[in-house]
């Protein structure tokens, strides 16, 4: 090839590719409000602000919006407390009921693809702009205010107000706002259930059972089974950096026309599932049987689909990876995602084919497969890892276990939450030669108020940033806050506040106007002692 032609065909496109981000960086794409994270919270914020006439840009790191509601979590955590949620959340649930002709008043179900598309349309209809594939690289500040977000693609996005709506808390971290990752000590906020919890061996019914944790049973020098960590001495109630187990919420079906059989993943390693095999053996020894539905469950949602979540003893939960995932860079997170996906696909191959699994369980599991009409660009496997908790803001008010248990009333309540404070998958180790798990019972749930101050960094930390997901809450309180309907409530309030913030000062919002705006939008903000609403 002639040198000049070769240069034009090969080198010039590369130079332009490198030059393009630099050229884009010379300008800033400006809107009134930038929301980081196309989660249900982020989209609710964008919808509310857009309806109030503000220009809004939603930056989503991946190529899909909807967060967990668009990625396998297809039953809303609403239950009989559905009237806790008004506004945009209620509108979404109403659309789901109408679309699927669901009569239930205690559960809301929907397909992942439908949820993603519905939330996207609601956002666009409100006038907000969605920009996909924009992981945050840095947040540039001027004094106490964020000026712009720069993404890994080289684009820059400027606004007066920024909303943190990621599950990981990446905007908070890039903006240098104080956060916490892990559990506070009991003494920090005077919470009875804070910090490290007691360890206990596995119980089946009322009996404690012994599950050997070693690769070669009874031989500590052979190493620990997958998912079991070495014992580390600690004091009950002390602070630590542990997070709840992450997993993928799976969508499976037994309808032949829509079923994609479970597949053996590349590099499948049967040894990864020896822990599960030993739990199965133990259950059989204690009970005489294992329920056929153990891996799949029976959580039917819509169109013959099941929402598969974690279960007791062993499951889709992958323990002890949370901190590594949250603190990793893009490549590091991708590696964790690949590892968790490989493990999860392998778990269902194990459950349907391995002779260590009882025949009745294998036969039942093989009845199911991935849903052909979901996640078509991802091998029918969910795209979003269930990040049950990431970084949390340390803000103007920290919502605690005591607030939730006492159903404390706040003058600046922007909405209600509801869900038990459930902690699971924190620490699996060895005590006395057998597997032991951390134990904390789920704490009672009920309607509770969420103060606006819990969405705001301290005045000295940031003036124009609002948290819609990773709010200022203790670990114990956040184990309730973390559900998607509550996130939508917080997101809607964050969007309203962002729209009302003069000169971007979110802490100086006229509270009377914010409350009246939320009331007019159908938000349920207050709970009276008899359980009614106003």
TrEMBL record:
Annotated signal sequence range: 1-25
SUPFAM superfamilies from the UniProt entry: FAD/NAD(P)-binding domain
Coiled-coil ranges from the UniProt annotation: none
Domain of life of the native organism: Bacteria
UniProt entry keywords in alphabetical sequence: 4Fe-4S, Iron, Iron-sulfur, Metal-binding, Oxidoreductase, Signal
One Pfam assignment: FAD_oxidored
Entries under InterPro entries matching the protein: FAD/NAD-bd_sf, HdrA-like
GO MF term set: 4 iron, 4 sulfur cluster binding; metal ion binding; oxidoreductase activity
Protein name per the record: FAD dependent oxidoreductase
